[in-house]
Amino acid sequence: MPKTVVVTGANSGIGLAMAHELAARGATVCLACRNQAKAEAAREEIARRTPGAKVDVLSLDLSSFEHIHRFATDLAARHERVDALINNAGASPLKQQFTAEGFELQFGANYLGPFLLTHLLLPQLRLAAEQTGDARIVHVASVAHNIGRIDADTFRGRSKYRPFPAYAQSKLANLMFNYALARRLPDGLSTHAMHPGGVDSDIYRELPRAVHAALRPFLISADRAGRLGAELALSPEYRERSGEYLTAQRPNPVSRRARDVAAQEALYAESAVLAGVEPLPRR
Ligand SMILES: NC(=O)c1ccc[n+]([C@@H]2O[C@H](COP(=O)([O-])OP(=O)(O)OC[C@H]3O[C@@H](n4cnc5c(N)ncnc54)[C@H](OP(=O)(O)O)[C@@H]3O)[C@@H](O)[C@H]2O)c1
């Protein structure tokens, strides 16, 4: 049965590479993107590389709960079943910014928005799990989680904002969500986290030129990371491996904080309150 895969932030970098790979493997790809002009350009690029590719474009801004709800409604009207959701979109602004609900942008848009989105898409994912026995959620986390700390006092902003601790917290939260979700999802619906590697993408666009130039030799291509994302979404190899965290570039240690089950559960419960969703019970 043909698969439908939603990729957030699919108009550039790793998300676009995933979309190319998924389209080449015959999936219908929904590009869930903030910037519609870039999303249309991505659709054309995918069609050029994979003639006959099935690509849909939908508007999604993860920095607004209202927008996320609207996206979920639009998606449900167009795709009854979702076989995989890839929570890829992420940002790392150098200056502190906030979501529409007043959360610090990296916590809000990199973590809390995808948390809400995942819960809103569960009906379509569950339907896919019932019909095919195989539906998946993929979280793009990062090796940066290793220096992250979950600190509720920073969720709505930091008095002394430094971008990297804020980014690391959001990526730690992505990984902890993966573990908490693995204890909750029904049979046939699995969750997977990945570190894409240090990838040469636009995420470094705000870095000073010299820093970016020094970093570049150590970065891998978005295509390599995109292949892992597509594999986690589609490959039979990962079907029974819910809760795992994989990487496209080693080494990739998992921090003690990320593995702390009590902390995962506390974050899950608090996030459900913040995002206004009914928490899923543990199996
Ligand atoms: N590159 C790396 O070395 C690296 C390493 C570890 C993890 N990651 C993770 O990989 C993921 C993809 O990053 P990338 O490297 O491919 O960077 P990228 O090229 O900058 O792509 C980021 C994507 O996220 C989208 N996005 C940002 N804020 C959004 C929002 N509020 N709502 C909806 N979409 C939003 C961007 O959309 P716009 O075009 O509208 O800005 C863009 O499509 C991120 O989660 C990042 O944290 C990257």
From TrEMBL:
Q: Name one Pfam family in it.
A: adh_short
Q: Which family does it belong to?
A: Belongs to the short-chain dehydrogenases/reductases (SDR) family.
Name the SUPFAM superfamilies for this protein.
NAD(P)-binding Rossmann-fold domains
The reply on keyword Oxidoreductase is: yes
Q: Which UniProt keywords apply?
A: Oxidoreductase
- Asked whether the keyword Oxidoreductase is assigned, the reply is yes
Q: What is this protein called?
A: SDR family NAD(P)-dependent oxidoreductase
